[in-house]
Design a protein that fits this description.
Layout lengths: L19 H22 L20 E6 L5 E3 L2 E3 L2 H12 L6 E6 L5 H14 L4 E5 L25 E3 L1
Parallel strand pairs: 1-4, 4-5
Antiparallel strand pairs: 1-2, 2-3, 5-6
Amino acid sequence: MSLGNFDSSGGQPMAEINTTPLVDVMLVLLVIFIITAPLLTHAIKLDLPQADASRATETVDTITLSIDPAGGLYWNNEPVADLDTLSLRLAEAALATPKPDLHLRAHNLTPYERIAQVMSAAQRAGMNSIGFVTNPASGINQPAANSAPGDADAIPAGGGASH
C-alpha cells in the first residue's frame, strides 16, 4: 500500500509528511504549560497557627530603635553609646517574657551597613520580631514649607509600622 494522492495515474508515493497533527499536539502542550507554569512558581510554605488554644493575647512592649544618618543609635529616643551597649540592652530585652517587638526606624540616608549591623545584633540577642517603621508614601523627601534646613534630615517622631 503506497501513500500518495488518489490519482492512480502516477503511482509514485507521496514524499510530504502531514504536519497538522504534530502542530495540534504541540499547541495543546504549549497551552497546558502556559497554564500550569505559574502555579508551580508561586508555592509558598506557610506555618499556619494552631487553633486549639483560646488564650487572651498578651500586650507586648515595643522598643523603638532609631538610626540617624550618621549612624547614631537611639533606644526609645535615648542615645546609645555604641553597638556593644546596644547588644547588651537587646540581650536584656530578649530575656523578658513575652519578648518585646523591635521597631527599627532608620533615616533614608543611613548606610545599609549600619542597619545590617543593628539587625545582626538584634538577631544574636534573640529578638525574633523586628519591624521597620516608615513614613507614608505621600510627601516623600519633601520638607515642610516652614521647616528649617536641618529639619528635613531629622527623623520624624511619627510614622507607620510595617511588619
